[in-house]
Design brief:
This protein is an alpha+beta fold. The two termini are about 20 Å apart. It is built from five helices and seven strands.
Length: about 180
């Protein structure tokens, strides 16, 4: 059984570990190998410790099972005046992918946006190379509206291979 709950500072380590594992599995080629093969776990844990200590206008939700964190989503409310709230991260543990948990998390984020943001509009950026994620977002009503390029993770130069293309996926009327 998986239940969605709000994440807190004590969850930073587990969320960071899942985030790093997901990047290592799905962002190869776009992210530099030296970054992914290095201490990306510590990097992500530090990021999540900071985010969860001072959430500001954002929320992080997670799903847990007997093995720990099964997935999480992070949404920043009212990030963009045109596109609305920004789903900054959505990751599901690899052994649970394609089981509906991503849909549960994204729908939960959509509910939170409707409760806390000025409009239900929601968007995210996805690596163009990540075809399974793109198809997933489209199945949930996301529309590709803009092309861009990835930013260096954590703003640290050299963590990318060149300028990986991205797509902005938007839900102008909200998710779910």
């Amino acid at each position: 059984m998986h239940e969605v709950r709000a994440a807190g500072p004590a969850d930073a380590g587990a969320i960071g570990a899942l985030h790093a594992d997901s990047w290592r599995r799905h962002y190869r080629g776009a992210f530099a190998d030296h970054f992914l093969d290095g201490d990306v776990v510590t990097d992500r844990r530090e990021l999540w410790a900071a985010r969860l200590a001072e959430p500001g206008r954002s929320e992080t939700f997670l799903l847990e099972d007997a093995e720990g964190v099964a997935g999480f989503v992070h949404v920043i409310f009212d990030r963009d005046p045109r596109w609305g709230s920004f789903v900054d991260n959505l990751h599901v543990r690899n052994d649970l992918r394609r089981g509906g948990l991503g849909s549960v998390l994204l729908t939960h984020a959509g509910r939170a946006v409707r409760e806390h943001a000025a409009s239900p509009a929601t968007y995210l950026w996805v690596l163009a190379q990540n075809e399974p994620a793109r198809r997933f977002y489209e199945r949930l009503g996301g529309v590709p509206v803009e092309h861009g390029t990835a930013s260096d993770p954590g703003g640290v130069p050299g963590r990318l291979n060149g300028a990986p293309p991205t797509l902005r996926m938007a839900w102008p009327e909200g998710v779910g």
